[in-house]
Amino acid sequence: MALTRIGLAGLAVMGQNLALNIAEKGFPISVYNRTTSKVDETVQRAKLEGNLPLYGFHDPASFVNSIQKPRVVIMLVKAGAPVDQTIATLAAHLEQGDCIVDGGNEWYENTERREKAMEERGLLYLGMGVSGGEEGARHGPSMMPGGSLEAYQYIEDILLKVSAQVPDSGPCVTYIGKGGSGNFVKMVHNGIEYGDMQLIAEAYDVLKSVGKLTNGELQQVFAEWNKGELLSFLVEITADIFSIKDDQGEGYLVDKALYASKICSYAQGMNIIKAKSTEKGWGLNLGELARIWKGGCIIRASFLDRIKKAYDRNGELANLLIDPEFAQEIMDRQAAWRRVVCLAINNGVSTPGMSASLAYFDSYRRDRLPANLVQAQRDYFGAHTYERVDMPGSFHTEWYKIANSKI
To answer: 92 Cβ partners below 8 Å, 6+ apart?
Structure first.
């Protein structure tokens, strides 16, 4: 057998599907898993899905030696200790200049620690976020590689073909930046994803509990929303969910406030990334992140194209809320947004996501917040000092003594 182009270790759902995707795109791939039955299962799938160039190995030495140099191995194993164990298993057989890619949801500081450790052994390391679930892994995910630029360049041609393809903006992959930036960006992506899911669930709850909509009516509402500015994967699948009847019994499987909340959710996520990029000196391109999230990943939505354009207009944009387009849209919707949150509160329906998003918006738009009083209280009971808005420096006031001297 000729040497393969790349290897993949870890053949659970994501690993198996990504390996088949790589093979289907014409790149011969070696696969390995500690549980050998997973290897055999993947090889069988490759045969059934078109005799794809995928080769299975039951021991790490044979696996590593089957890959062309410089070798690149993608790991898709559970974050934490299993990653370190897999690295130890693979590194015993790798040579200087070879590369390990962690495609799991790892904490970014662990990635930076491992990158340094691998560098000491002459190995390259990438931490690569992969979004899109089982379907995305098989047919085109959004991919967020960060770490060694040299390592990324080894496999750029593979990633460009394997990732989701969006007609107007290209492959949903880009080199994110140094260190653990790829994992950090994927982590915030996941936060935005669950924020989206929570907001959609709250909209559903308000419509069902207060509006008394049936599942059929809810399906129509979400299907209609998916034709407009809320067009997204999550709204699409929510409409589908309401149309599917329970095969185990009677009924269904799941018995304008939303858009404004969504803007705030994405604004917070982008600001977290921006702050960490500044702290770590990663120099991340926020517009490019919005571009690679347009396809393949769970948060894919037409809305992301508008976020990209906002950062294209102003690469130093402090917050999406002050982009002229988004600012106007959120101002146009805020009255309805407030009515919906009040309606939910008055009817005892919990909407923590919408309420928190509204609070974030109100905090951001105000000139001053009451933090000055908090600082005064901390200085009073703990002499923690405070800063002033009219002059630089730290200050302390003998609040108790002054207050009691006037008695």
So the answer is: 60
Let me know: does 296 contact 172? Beta carbons within 8 Å: yes
Contacts of 346 (CB under 8 A, 6+ apart): none
HSE, side-chain direction, 13 A CA sphere, residue 64 = 18
Q: Closest Cα partner for 294 from 165, 399, 183, 207?
A: 165
DSSP state letter for 320: G
Half-sphere exposure of 300 (CA within 13 A, CB side): 22
Consecutive 10-residue averages of pLDDT for the chain (407 residues) = 94 96 97 96 97 97 97 95 95 96 95 95 96 92 94 95 92 95 95 90 85 83 80 74 62 64 91 94 93 83 86 91 91 87 89 92 89 90 91 92 80
- Alpha helices for 314-370 (secondary structure H): 324-346, 352-365
C-alpha to C-alpha distance for 399 and 40, rounded to whole angstroms: 74
Cα(142)–Cα(132) distance, integer angstroms: 7
Closest to 114 (Cα-Cα) out of 99, 129, 95, 94: 99
Secondary structure letter of residue 244 according to DSSP: P
- Give, to the nearest 10 degrees, the angle between helix 352-365 and helix 324-346: 130
Q: How far apart are CA 401 and CA 398, in angstroms?
A: 6
Asked if 320 contacts 263 with a C-beta cutoff of 8 angstroms, the reply is yes
Q: What's the predicted TM-score (pTM) here?
A: 0.85
Contacts of 267 (CB under 8 A, 6+ apart): 319, 320, 321, 326, 360
Q: Beta strands 394-395 and 386-387: pairing type?
A: antiparallel
What's the pLDDT tens digit per position in 232-282?
777 777 777 667 665 555 554 444 688 888 889 999 999 999 999 999 999
* Closest to 86 measured CA to CA, from 151, 4, 78: 78
Beta strands in 21-102 (DSSP E): 29-32, 54-57, 72-75, 99-102
Positions marked catalytic = 186, 193
Contact present, 90 and 100 (Cβ < 8 Å): yes
